[in-house]
User: What shape does this take?
Amino acid sequence: QVQLVESGGGLVQAGGSLRLSCAASGSMVSILAMVWYRQAPGKQRELVAAIGSSGNTHYADSVKGRFTISRDVANNTVFLQMSSLKPEDTAVYYCNADFGPMARDYWGQGTQVTVSS
Assistant: This one.
């Protein structure tokens, strides 16, 4: 069993920065990737950034150059550094632990990010 706890969300003005954290507990040995998703009101959940077990990263086009995903392997924590925030970044941000297509994945409870114009 894996538990994910996100933190770091809040209200920020456009152009500002926030850093989200996702602390994982439980067995992470077989993890393939840690992924940040977001869901804005009335919209589908979308992938924001991912970091694989080898450290490779992937970003949605909408956040490239503004967001950085990183991890602290020793502490099973993943971070999302968000800079140059825009009102359209407003959403609930979720952390996801991906163990591959043959295993269940796990989700955190989400953390609200609100960017005011």
